[in-house]
Amino acid sequence: MVSGKQEAVSGEMSQTRLGSKREAASSEKPHIKLEVWRSAMVLVKMIYEVTGTFPRHEQFGLVSQMRRAAVSIPSNIAEGAARTSRKEMGQFLSISKGSLSELDTQIRIAEMLGYLKDSAELQTQLERTSKLLSGLHRKVQNDD
Known about the structure:
Layout: H1 4-18, H2 21-26, H3 35-51, H4 62-82, H5 86-112, H6 120-142
């Protein structure tokens, strides 16, 4: 049986881990407000889930590469958003675009090797993130 105090602490911990919409909106972190960052975070989660089903012998090969490329996308968006100049932000968005292309290639390799049977949902999220990222990159470059 869980006491009221334990329940309250447990609730606070899960809310802290997961955050809330209100927290995200009031956060001082500029990347939290970017739809492209949120889209890239969904892509990261999807990649972690799908690579969890890959053969064990790929743990330090394709699995590791795909996860690193996926994590790099929102990480570089966040770093760019925290920069003070548009030129710097553009550079980090460019790195994110490169990581997205790298991930696209790795997804195709995983399909070719038979590790991914149906990547339609993954490809849809990748395409959505790509469009958002390209749009933001264009805007940042044109605002100079």
